[in-house]
Design brief:
Elements (H helix, E strand, L loop, with lengths): L2 H10 L1 H21 L4 E9 L17 H12 L2 H11 L10 H15 L8 H12 L1 E4 L5 E8 L2 H23 L4 H30 L4 H32 L5 H62 L8 E5 L11 H25 L7 H8 L15
Antiparallel strand pairs: 1-3, 1-4, 2-3
């Protein structure tokens, strides 16, 4: 394509190019002056990867730096953090009357909510959703720093809300990683085990008192000796009965006396054995309770030790964390970009857009615009021409 072709193209579509160009510039300029200026604020947080999240946290050091940063980014962008910030600052009201454009937008939103095209939200929920959509949270390259950036029309307000999010993140960081409250759990366990231990000891003492087993071991040993002696006596009486059975007839008085002695010894054995079985049952009950007491005592001692250790940890400074606020957001004195900047961009964009439209129209234009095109299509030379009146627009 030669310079002459370019000039011819521009001249041919001059109204198209100029029309779309001025339309884009006019539209952007109008919106720039109708819409409020956009300000941008940012705060920055340092996340140290070589330290525990809190001084007393049971978190291993040496965690991957990228993992630490991604975890911090996820916590900052979580709904609890954003809602905590929103509840802290409340709803913003600068006391100014909304512009006609803002009234129109608000009216459209209200109509969509009434028509069921958009879910109705409370102002607080709307603020949290706006933060989820517009708060930019990203780690800075080759550093342990996370930047929190927010754009808005009121510089004081967006600075306040970004700082509130930063503080809310620190609070939630402490809540998530600290062991605060663990000592209270251990204290409750110690108290429960203490009550259980006292109950078992009272139960044992009451059982011993009720069953009169203060000298249980001695009584059992005495019964065992008595049973042994009774069995020896029984064996002797049976030998004597056998000897007398040879000498005397079955109805002899000596045989009757020996048989009576044997019957008495058997009764003594049965009574002693029953008493011994009863004492053994009582001993089993006592041993079971004593075993339970020892088990509870071990648990009580363990929880008591853990409670004291955790109580000492809780006395540590909970503010010693691995995150630091490098800089809080401050309200900027001017918008990030001036209106002239956007108008300049509209000039460049309008020019590109209008030329693109002209190129598209040129591609789909099938009209004949010169004698050379007639000669090329018909294959005959041009003798003469009459000026064209159907110029393309």
């Amino acid at each position: 394509m030669t310079k002459r072709d370019v000039i011819m193209f521009m001249f041919k579509w001059k109204y198209t190019i100029l029309g779309y160009f001025f339309f884009v510039v006019f539209l952007v300029t109008t919106l720039v002056y109708l819409l409020p200026k956009k300000y941008e604020v940012a705060s920055s947080v340092l996340v140290e990867s070589n330290r525990a999240p809190v001084m007393r946290a049971a978190v291993a050091l040496g965690t991957d730096e990228l993992t630490m940063l991604n975890s911090a980014v996820a916590i900052i962008g979580s709904k609890p953090v954003l809602r905590g910030a929103a509840e802290k600052v409340g709803l913003f009201d600068d006391g100014k009357e909304p512009s006609a454009f803002e009234l129109f937008i608000n009216g459209v939103k209200a109509w969509m909510e009434e028509a069921g095209l958009k879910e109705a939200k409370t102002p607080l929920d709307a603020l949290v959703e706006d933060l989820e959509d517009n708060l930019k949270i990203e780690p800075l390259a080759a550093s342990n720093v996370i930047s929190l950036t927010l754009k808005g029309k009121n510089p004081q307000w967006i600075a306040v809300i970004v700082n509130a999010v930063t503080d809310s993140y620190i609070d939630n960081h402490l809540r998530i990683f600290s062991s605060k409250g663990t000592s209270e759990v251990f204290r409750q366990q110690v108290e429960r085990l203490s009550n259980e231990l006292g109950g078992l000891r009272d139960k044992l003492a009451d059982y011993k008192s009720r069953e009169s087993v203060s000298a249980l071991r001695e009584t059992m040993q005495s019964l065992v000796l008595s049973l042994s002696q009774f069995r020896v006596n029984l064996a002797n009486e049976r030998e004597k009965l056998a000897e007398l059975g040879i000498k005397f007839s079955p109805g002899h008085a000596k045989l009757a006396l020996v048989k009576k002695n044997i019957a008495n010894i058997k009764r003594e054995i049965w009574g002693s054995q029953a008493e011994l079985d009863d004492l053994e049952r009582k001993e089993a009950v006592i041993e079971k309770v004593e075993s339970d007491i020892k088990t509870v005592e071990r648990s009580y001692s363990d929880y008591q030790k853990r409670y004291e250790e955790e109580r000492l940890r809780n006395m540590a400074n909970s503010d010693v964390v691995n995150v630091r606020v490098i800089a809080y957001a401050t309200p900027p004195e001017s918008a990030r970009h001036s209106r002239i900047f956007y108008i300049f961009l509209s000039i460049i964009g309008g020019l590109f857009f209008s030329i693109s439209i002209a190129l598209i129209k040129e591609y789909f234009d099938n009209r004949i615009n010169s004698g050379s095109e007639v000669s090329e299509i018909l294959g005959v030379p041009t003798i003469g021409s009459i000026g064209l009146t159907n110029q393309p627009f």
